[in-house]
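Hi P.,

Sorry for the delay on this. The queue was packed all week, but I finally got your sequence through. Input first:
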Amino acid sequence: MADKLDQMSAEGFDQAVEKAFTDAEKDTYEYEGKTYAAHPAATLFPLLGEDDFDALVSSLRLNGMRTPIVLLGDQIVDGRNRFRAAKKAGVKIIFEQIDPKEDICKFVMDMNIHRRNLTPGRKVALASTLRRMAIRIEQMRREAMREQVRNSREKEAGPGGGPDAPAEGNSAEAGPAAAGQGAEDAAGAGSGTDGAPAADVVAEAAKAAEEKAPHALDNPSSLVSRKKAAEFAGVSPTSLKRFDKVVETAPELQEEIVEGKMSVSDAAVVSEENPELRRQVVEDVRQGRARTGAQAIEQRTGRAPKAHTRPKASGGGRGPQSGGAEGGVAGMPPLPTVDGGADGKAAASSGAAAPADSPAASGGGAPQRAPSPALSSLALSPALLLAGVRKLMPVIDFDPCSSAAAQQRVRAQRYFDREQDGCQKAWDGASYVFPPPKFAGRFASKLMGEMFAGRVPRALFLAPSDLADEDEALLLRSSKLTGIVYQLERTEFEVEDGKPVKAPSRMVLYVFGFERKELYDAFDPWGKVLIPAGR
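Then the structure:
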């Protein structure tokens, strides 16, 4: 990590990080003759709106200040709103100093992300910016330490600047020894001032630099790690990685994510298109002409998005669930921990063949693990599940991803097979959808678009429990979601060649457009019914 950090330049950080440092210098507060400034990390979170601020002022007038303003030296790490409100309310402001060893960026994240009503998109954006800030601060800390070490060594070398010049505090007779020491120091392996080990010089330099500029010298933050930053923010590492990629390739989409107009995964799909098409897609989504960016691309071009047709890296972004829905969907309980394969990724077989133009159908894609029956065979819908489906949906109007063999069980009025590619055509009626796990996200997006257009009034969507967070979020956010049914135990699937295989993960059935009571009656024998709060 050290080499990677040292090689990154300031230009590699987005404008939000640079703006935070600039805003912190201007964001000052006066109290009892002393001036305080905001910590750069604190400025990433907006101040309260007028109504909320007035409510805070009223509360402070009534109760006084109970939660101190948290300081790092003279910088406000947490409490800018309380500071302003307390001054307006005319109450005494109390302070507490944070431990200088505290991970400041993590502290700021903990104090703000989890107590504010933030959208999933805003959470991942803030996690990304705080991570970039943590990296920037770590760079500054190291540079300050290096500067102090350089100054110490120049001081040791003396006015002449050469290794033979006596260092301050040393006798002239020490010249030959100093010369040898200077050579060792130049190689980075010798001693520092007054014969102290180089490590001590670095430690002293860090201490001196911290006293000089504490705001830039927080302890090395754990948020430098993308995995840790995602964990602390309550989003998935995959979402954070995709967001960083979107900011790099199509920064204009960042606003769509933050405002909740697009999910991170949808914006990542749109980011791979040309700038003009991206602009049109954003407009279509904002005007309600398309439910998602992917759907807008299909409507405008008559083809699948580039991200859906190119070969994907191994795993395709799928991974063990980490809270779901980019860190959780309001009112929806998190799914239980899933049973993964050797690498924690789902490899459950599908209820239909892959679309004809897909990597799975063409044999393309990145190298995979040694194939297993669950990966290579076409699974059929479990009989116990279909019994529940029949109770809920006696007539299945449409199955968009199926085969002749699968239809011997499903018996839909109309279906598409791999050559027809159901993602490229309009759907119609009550639908049962059991897509190949590799293409579950694509079919989830298509289903939401068809429901939004009014062509699919009710639907059942079967997918592995370790569906990618963004795809799961898309399904869970739907206003038509009645609930989900989480499988009690892993299913043994029958396949077309007659060799049963055990699914590497449990399955989840997403139910749209039905009455809640119908779920319990239909699926109690197969799985645990979970209903979103307030529905």
